[in-house]
Write a structure and sequence with these properties.
mainly alpha, three-stranded antiparallel sheet, 3 strands, globular
Length: 151
């Protein structure tokens, strides 16, 4: 999206917060894909790796919930990532029915690189926005999420 398109969108008086959030997400994902050299091109793998970098040893069910993707989509992504050496599956030692997914050293390296990229984009996004405004925006967005979940 270029600046002219963005200005045209801003002129729309019927533009909702959800529409603005959607535009922000599209531009954010576009920035990631432009700057991404090493990281996965598919969103599911990026989400799985990001989740595992924070909560290593998740079950496939937990990853489905976290990514909000279909179970089959997550399964295919995990298999591909396992074949490429980014994750490994290990049977749960306490519940033999469950399999846990762990990030490997190779996966952690790429996850760290991805986090640096996200931090850089995040820093650009927050230019000239006060801490107070960020807290208010966070509160409003969290409340909107709660409202969606409750309804």
């Amino acid at each position: 999206m270029n600046k002219l398109d963005l200005e045209k969108l801003r002129e729309n008086p019927n533009r909702t917060l959800l529409m603005i959030a959607n535009e922000l997400i599209k531009l954010f994902e576009n920035e990631i894909s432009k700057k991404e050299v090493v990281m996965f091109k598919d969103k599911t793998s990026r989400l799985i790796l990001a989740y595992l970098s924070m909560w290593d040893g998740a079950t496939q069910h937990e990853l489905v919930k976290a990514t909000q993707m279909k179970g089959s989509t997550v399964s295919v992504a995990i298999t591909k990532m396992e074949n490429e050496g980014y994750v490994k599956r290990v049977q749960d030692e306490y519940d033999m029915r469950a399999t846990r997914v762990y990030i490997t050293k190779k996966g952690l390296e790429i996850s760290t690189e991805h986090k640096r990229l996200l931090d850089s984009i995040d820093s650009s996004l927050m230019t000239d926005i006060s801490e107070r405004d960020i807290r208010v925006a966070r509160y409003v967005l969290e409340k909107m999420l709660d409202n969606l979940i409750e309804n």
